[in-house]
Structure formats: structure tokens, C-alpha cells
Amino acid sequence: MNNYAGFGKRLLARFLDVMILTILIGGLFYIFTGEYSINFEKGVAWDFFYTLYLVIVPLIWSGYIIGKRICNIKLIQKDGHKVKLSNTFLRELVGFHLIGIITLGISLVVSTFMVIFREDKRAIHDIVGGTYVIES
């Protein structure tokens, strides 16, 4: 079967993604506003663009985003095919954000333990989106 990506690689990929995109988007905020500080409106804009990035880029880049590419892991459908818009939309917007908001973040803690202890390393958002994260 597939070599599922574990918690450490997934966490590192997310960290790298956030750091790289924060520098890029922070630079754009500075160019357009002349400020480094992020107020509420800019924070909402960051979340919107980051979520859009997580939904769109894996479609274009065969399951990769920047952090996943660096860590040599990628997102695939449960059946092993390339992800579709329905997968990434359900995974990020419903499985991660909506369920995270409804459960006040408890789903993130549960997902962490799911990735650590489940044999297939799937979190709540992977199950909702019908996806796996594999080592490529």
C-alpha cells in the first residue's frame, strides 16, 4: 500500500508553508500599506488567501503545496488519483475550518492524535475530503 505521511512531516510542511507565505504575503501587505502590523481585517484576509491557496494549489501542482513539496509529501484522493476541487474544498473549508470552528478547536487536537495513532494517518479533514497525505 501507500507510504502514509506521519505527523512530523505533515507538521513541518505546514510550518514551512506558513513561514514562507507569511514572508511573501507580509511583504505584499507592506508594499501596499506601508505597515508590518496585521490588524483584524488583514488577519481575515490572510486566512482567506491561505485557505484559497490550500484549496487551489494542490489542484494545479498535482497534490503539492510549497511545504509539502519541500517535505516530499503530497495530497491524493482516497482511491489514489489526483485530488479534485471537491476534495480540497471539503478537506479545507468543511473538514478543517468549519468543523474546527464548531468544535472550538477540539477537532484539531483529535486530528493530531488520529494522524499519530491511525495506521492510515488520516485526520478528520482527510476523512471529510476523501484524501490521504502520502510520501512521494
From TrEMBL:
Residues in RDD domain copies: 4-129
Transmembrane segments: 12-32, 44-67, 88-117
Topology of this chain in the membrane: Multi-pass membrane protein
Alphabetical UniProt keywords: Cell membrane, Membrane, Transmembrane, Transmembrane helix
InterPro entries: Pra-immunoreactive, RDD
Primary localization: membrane
Compartments it resides in: Cell membrane
One GO cellular component term noted in the UniProt record for this chain: plasma membrane
Protein name, as recorded: RDD domain-containing protein
Organism: Paraliobacillus quinghaiensis
Protein's gene: yckC
